[in-house]
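sanity check this record:
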Amino acid sequence: MTELLILAAGLGLAGVLSGFLAGLFGIGGGAILVPILITVFPYLGINPDVVAHMAVGTSLAIIIPTAVRSYRSHRSKGAGNADLLRAWVFWVPFGVVIASLIVGGVSGDVLRAVFAAIALIIAIKMLFNRASWTLADHLPPRPVTNGVGFGIGFLSTFMGIGGGNLNNLFMTSFGQPIHQAVATSAGLGVLIAIPATLGYAYAGWGLATLPPWTLGYVHLLGAALVTPFSMLAAPYGARFAHNLSPRRLEITFGIFLLVVIVRMMTDVIA
């Protein structure tokens, strides 16, 4: 009983941290939740073969209300590209659906590798950003942007994130301010998390190896423990982001990603 209370408290703290980071970076919180859930779930008796899938599916469920809360906080500061989000209303969920159809046949190690590789590219961009790395000073035309939206939805489903990591890379590479990118990423999390959560629930539906209190690969009890704390902390992260200079926000984001990568690779090696 004591061990379960400790785990519950740990999940609550993870919710506070993920919510704050969701507001700060517009990432939805999955970048911190996935490694934490991968660490915690084995203590709940979850089969090691499905731990990574459960962590991703559960983090996506938590992202839904957290992303809504985060985006509203950023919009109150006048940030966020609503036109881009409207253009992605179809394309991002389409990428999510396609990825969800094949995610059940992908090993947990592949999910971890995809996460780490993409996160490393983004971290390097944020830490060592140069003016010459900017591809243009404006976003590309609609056909290209639509394809990017599809790709973000597809890759985010494998990574268990709200798409903020990828969108921050995309928007800053085309001359958009980091604060504008972060705010837009918060809204993007909603477009990704809803269909992705349904996809993970469907992909794991009826598996005999899943524990109680699950809906496919979504751990309902875990999500219920984390979500309130995540929603509570998101506005504070958004407020803090707007108090940072653009360059400082980029560096902070890059360092955060490196910490996440190291933590996840430690689990793989162990």
Remarks:
- The chain has eleven helices and two strands.
- The first strand starts at residue 214 and ends at 215.
- The CA atoms of residues 53 and 217 lie 6 Å apart.
